[in-house]
Design goal:
single chain, alpha+beta, eleven-stranded mixed β-sheet, four-stranded antiparallel β-sheet, 15 helices, 27% helix
């Protein structure tokens, strides 16, 4: 809402005693209590500071975009009740009327324009998802247009995390710009929130708990029957399992694979399993002339394709799937899941595991005795992430590469990768928020710029790949788009810019009588959770 109109509306609300402070304690809405756990905390409540998948998914229960993905990964209207393409580069969105933020302020086009300015502030990581947008403009109070630099037929999918903020609240809380997580900066939006979503934040204690309550003025018709929701980060996998079995929590959305048999033996508990879109991979520092963590001086061995292929061929992914992932993962031959839109199925085959070829390639590259190199891995972000890195270290040791595993909690690991404090790293990407192969191409693989390559931490760059990605973004039809995506991925695959490992599984567990509606994007949508 425009600041002048906002002040008038707020004065009326104050006079009626209706104004509430976002983040303040509020009475329960009368629904069912629900407590759930994950293996790490969210990084921030600022909806534009993070490109961390779990953080963004959590915030999708508090903040909303113009459109959203439902649990079938289909685009549907959210803060925009309808939208249409008025020209090859212009989309018109008709905003939903009668929507209020959690503090009682009304939502309109001014908030969309303010949010567009905010996501382009220096500390924002959300702008990497919106690089195709040239301008967001107001037509009237409830109509906006988004113009793209070039035709971009998948624009709606690209704005599902364009979370809208209230300008007046942001100004009052010193949150006009996104706080830079890489420098550990904070603003008023780091520990408090004011969205339009189905749940509002009532308490935030980092690394301890975050409490939400159903927002009774939410514009949509709730499927859920929840009242007070408590999120508890529990880093220890055995503790999460024990907490579920004891009744201390109602659901765990990060179940260790080794605990599934134990959980299935308890008739009070249900386990929900399915494939995830996320591909786990190893990345390399392509940029530095000398690696930060290596005994090789004066050069960067990871720039040599032969070295990267040696690492690739030394990793027995079938063994990782069988022994580390307990048979519940799918070997990856490319950097996108075959279940993502636009994914070329024929590229999803791996180079053969061949340690002898690895030794030969290392010798050809000038490292007959191998070398040491550090790898940054999380120990609480992905399924069996630390064990995977340790197993890979053992495999690489057999060909002479001495991998120094630097295993750290998500909060530390994410800062290190964002600051490029590594030589090698483990990362995962699910093609979200688009649920499309283009998301990985544009965000993970494309050359770093102000609007692209936000997760290209290794700084790989290929002009032909970039050109194909740009062409895919504006392809006139789906067959052409798929062909261009395939050509681009074939280039990255041939260069072995990264080493794809596998698609990890989703394993959730909950008390019987709770419907969690698991989706392949591994997001808990609280607004469709029901507790009997």
């Amino acid at each position: 809402m425009h600041p002048v109109a906002r002040r008038a509306a707020l004065a009326v609300a104050l006079a009626l005693g209706l104004a509430q402070t976002a983040g303040a304690q509020a009475p329960s809405s009368g629904g069912r209590p629900f407590t759930w756990a994950f293996n790490s905390d969210i990084l921030t409540l600022d909806p534009h500071s993070s490109n961390h998948t779990f953080t963004n998914a959590f915030l999708g229960n508090v903040y909303e975009a113009l459109v959203r993905h439902n649990d079938r990964i289909e685009i549907e209207p959210a803060l925009a009740e309808s939208f249409s393409r008025t020209s090859p580069t212009v989309w018109r969105f008709n905003l939903r009327r009668g929507v209020t933020f959690h503090n009682g302020e009304s939502f309109d086009a001014d908030d969309v324009l303010f949010t567009w300015q905010r996501v382009n502030s220096p500390g924002s990581l959300a702008k990497g998802l919106l690089g195709q947008i040239r301008e967001v403009r107001k037509i009237d109070q409830y109509t906006i247009e988004i113009e793209t630099h070039r035709p971009f037929p998948i624009l709606p999918a690209s704005i599902t995390q364009f979370y809208i903020m209230d300008e007046g609240w942001s100004r009052a809380n010193n949150a006009m710009e996104a706080a830079n997580l890489a420098t550990q900066a904070e603003s008023g939006a780091t520990r408090a929130a004011n969205g339009t979503g189905p749940f509002r934040i009532v308490e935030r204690r980092p690394d301890e708990r975050t409490i939400l309550e159903a927002f009774p003025q939410w514009w949509d018709r709730p499927v859920h029957n929840l009242g007070r929701v408590t999120f508890t980060p529990i880093r220890s996998a055995p503790t999460r399992t024990a907490s579920l079995l004891s009744g201390a929590i109602d659901a765990n959305v990060e179940v260790p694979l080794q605990d599934i048999p134990r959980l299935l033996q308890d008739q009070r508990v249900q386990v929900i399993e399915g494939p995830e879109l996320r591909t786990i991979y190893l990345g390399f520092d392509h940029d530095r002339d000398q690696l930060l963590y290596s005994d090789v001086q004066g050069r960067n061995p990871l720039r040599d394709r032969r070295v990267r292929e040696a690492i690739y061929r030394a990793i027995d992914v079938d063994s990782l799937v069988r022994n580390v992932m307990r048979g519940k993962a799918w070997p990856a031959g490319m950097m996108v899941s075959p279940y993502l839109a636009g994914a070329p199925q024929d590229l999803n085959t791996r180079l053969p595991y061949d340690p002898e070829a690895s030794r030969r390639l290392l010798a050809e590259a000038g490292y007959p005795n191998g070398f040491s190199v550090g790898i940054v891995c999380p120990n609480d972000r992905y399924v069996n992430d630390e064990r995977t890195c340790q197993a890979i270290a053992s495999m690489l040791a057999r060909v002479g590469i001495r991998l120094q595993v630097q295993s750290e909690p998500t909060a530390v690991w994410s800062r290190r990768t964002a600051n490029r404090d590594f030589s090698m790293f483990m990362l995962g990407h699910a093609g979200l928020p688009l649920a499309d192969s283009y998301s990985t191409l544009n965000e993970v693989l494309k050359t770093v710029s102000q609007t692209t390559g936000g997760l290209n931490y290794g700084r790989w760059s290929n002009a032909q790949f970039d050109a194909l990605t740009d062409q895919a973004a504006e392809a006139p039809d789906e067959p052409t788009r798929q062909r261009l995506i395939r050509e681009a991925l074939a280039i990255e695959r041939a260069e072995i810019a990264n080493v794809p490992l596998f698609q990890q599984p989703i394993a959730w567990a909950a008390r019987r009588g709770i419907d969690l509606r698991q989706a392949p994007d591994n997001r808990l949508r609280l607004w469709i959770v029901r507790v009997d």
